[in-house]
Amino acid sequence: MSPNRIIAIVLRQIYLIRGSFSRVFPTFAWIAVDMVLWGFLTRYLNKATSGGPDFVPILLGAVLLWDFFIRIMQGVTMAFFEDVWSRNFLNVFATPILISEYVGGLILSSIVTSAIGLAVMLCIAAVFFHLSLLVYGIMTIPFLAVLFLFGIALGIFACAVVLRFGPASEWFIWPLPALISPFAGVLYPISTLPEWMRYISVIFPPSYVFEGLRAMVSGSAVQTAALVKGGLLAVAYIVAAYYILNRVYRHALRTGLIARYSAETIS
Questions:
Q1: How far apart are CA 117 and CA 208, in angstroms?
Q2: Separation CA 148–CA 155 (nearest Å)
Q3: Where in the sequence is the domain holding 42, given as residue range(s)?
Q4: pTM of the entire structure?
Q5: Number of domains comprising the chain
Q6: CA angle 5, 80, 248 (to 5 degrees)
Q7: In a domain, 265, yes or no
Q8: Which pLDDT tens digit goes with each residue over 95-113?
């Protein structure tokens, strides 16, 4: 793998973002809307249930981490979609770049954009709603790490789906986080789910993150073994997602699919 080729993918995304206000504004706008909406909701719940639990870290903290996960996934997919939308995909792979280098560039691009988004969310949550995850210190790192890894895995898988079925299939990608969220227990304990949903939730790493987050906020002991299991699951998903993307890419080369890439669905 060549570091220069990986950095080249990242630089392309930086130049695109730097030269387009329409790409920069949504990065901050939707984050601000989520933080403000859920921040005021948690304030209302605190007033309505005076003397009850503090909903700011429980709900707003969960929304912040879930938004971080979504930004990670979208950081990978949006960088890929930029090449699809601009019909630049074929040009990229006409160069000696490897699929592993391309994916590495997408991941680094995601790290840059999601780090900016996370900083904005933390600032809004701290300044306006007095929520600071920093009070938990290094205990927050494992939670962020699991969400980061699973976000990368989901982003790579999304790229494979669009590469195989064409740009029109991107509409299957946008709802993925929303479809996962009920099973992840973002806003409520997994124990509230029906039994059949609990069986499904165990295969999603975020479920271990948010269960651990609620335990940490309530002062209970975090189940380290469960969080480690979530991390191992996320790593396994990355390996599986990359394997699928690599197989799809080789299929596209072998069948000439990559040369026929267009704005329509490819069967």
A1: 23
A2: 10
A3: 3-260
A4: 0.88
A5: 1
A6: 90
A7: no
A8: 788 888 888 999 998 888 8
